[in-house]
Structure formats: structure tokens, C-alpha cells
Design goal:
The chain has one domain: NADH Oxidase (3-Layer(aba) Sandwich), CATH 3.40.109.10. The chain is built from seven helices and six strands. The protein has a four-stranded antiparallel beta sheet, sandwiched between helices. Helix 3 packs antiparallel against helix 6. It is globular and about 55 Å long. The model has no long low-confidence stretch (mean pLDDT 95).
Amino acid sequence: MSRNPEAPIDSRFVQRWSPRSFTGKPITAGELMSLFEAARWAPSTSNTQPWRFVYGLAGTPGFESIFQALVPFNQSWARASSALIAVLSAQQTIAPGTTEAKPCANHSFDTGAAWMSLALQAEAMGWRAHAMGGFDAQALRQQLGVPGGFAAHCVVAVGEQGPRESLPQALQEREVPSGRQPMHAMVAEGRFTFSG
């Protein structure tokens, strides 16, 4: 698969990828706040900003709480990350100018935009961010004290990219930027023409 864009875009979109090899270099809470600040400015439905982030720095109880909820495959490499972030969203929100919480049909969509903002800010600062769907949502909720009404979307590992050789042999072969489907597989004008 190719990592060459089919239309002109800013290079940061192609340069961003999700490695699994990390050096373990510490990241400060202040540096993480810059990632969250970028996410804070993501667009959202009625400006409700439903995303929530719970983080733990490596070597802290918060990191261990999130780490324990990962599936063993992700634990095998995420241990060397500098921070873990649980990405959550409020399923009900209060729109500006109102006082009543209402279901937010777009909470997942909006939170995806916030995650991408976080990931691009990490890249701009020389860090890498890898989002994982492989976690036990119930264990994560319990470990972090997440109440009902919030969806758990992913866990993000943040760190300085390390050498591929630090990974187990099977993962070394996968430690390359992935390609993307061709644009015609996801973009159509005027009518849905996709096969899958």
C-alpha cells in the first residue's frame, strides 16, 4: 500500500503514523497538557465538547490502572510508552445557553476529531501517539471510576519513537507506516457507489 497522497495535502497528515516501539523517555504533565489543549479546540456539535481524557504517566498508579485494562497483545509493547490516555465521551451533553442534558448522537464523532487533534499535536512536538481498541472497557471503567453515561473509545499510548528492534520479532515486521485505501474507495459524488 502507498503512503503517497492522491491530492495535495499538508505533509503532517502523511507523516503521522502509529508506531509500537517507544524509548520510555519521560513526558511531562505540561507536555501532555499541550496535547489536551489541541484536543480542546476540536470542533463539536453545538460546541458541547463531549470528550474526556484520563491519563497516567509511566511509573504512576494512573498508568498502571489504564495498562491493566489493555489486552495482553497491547500490553506487550505499550509498557515502554511515556503515558497512557483513556479516551472517553459524554453520551449526554448540555448545549450552551441551555440547562438540560440531552442525548448527544455525535459524541463519538466529535471525540474522534479531538483524538486526531491530540495526535497531530503530539507529532508536532516530536512525540508519537498510538490509539488502541484492544482493551477491556469494563475493566477500564472500573479501574478509573468512570460512571455510567460515558463511552470508552480507546486507549492512546504516547511516547518517543524507539527502534523497531526493541519489539518482538513478529511486531518488527509490522513497524512501518501503513498505507491507505485509494480515494475512490471512500469518496463518491452525488450517490453512494461503494461496494463495501
